[in-house]
Amino acid sequence: MNTRDYSLLGPDAARAVDTGLAAADWYHTDIPRKDMKALMKREDQPAIRDTVLLFGLMVVFAALGIALWPSLWSVPFWLAYGVLYGSAMDSRWHECGHGTPFRTGRYNDWVYQVASFCMVRNPVSWRWSHARHHTDTVIVGRDPEIVAMRPPALFRIFINLFGVLDALQGWKRMLLNASGRLDPEEATYIPESEHPKVIRVARIWVVIYAVTLTLAVAMQSILPLMVIGLPRLYGAWHHVMTGVLQHAGLAENVIDHRLNSRTVYMNPVSRFIYWNMNYHVEHHMFPMVPYHRLPELHAMIKHDLPAANPSIWAAYREVLPILRRQLAYHDDFLTRTLPETARPYRADLHQSALGNSAADTSTPTAVPAE
Amino acid sequence: MTNWIDACGADDIEEEDVIRFDHEGRTFAIYRSPDDNYFCTDGLCSHEQVHLADGLVMDHTIECPKHNGQFDYRSGEALRAPVCVNLATYPVKVEGDRVLIEI
Ligand code: FES
Question: Backbone phi, then psi, for B37, in 5-degree steps?
Answer without folding.
Answer: -110, 160
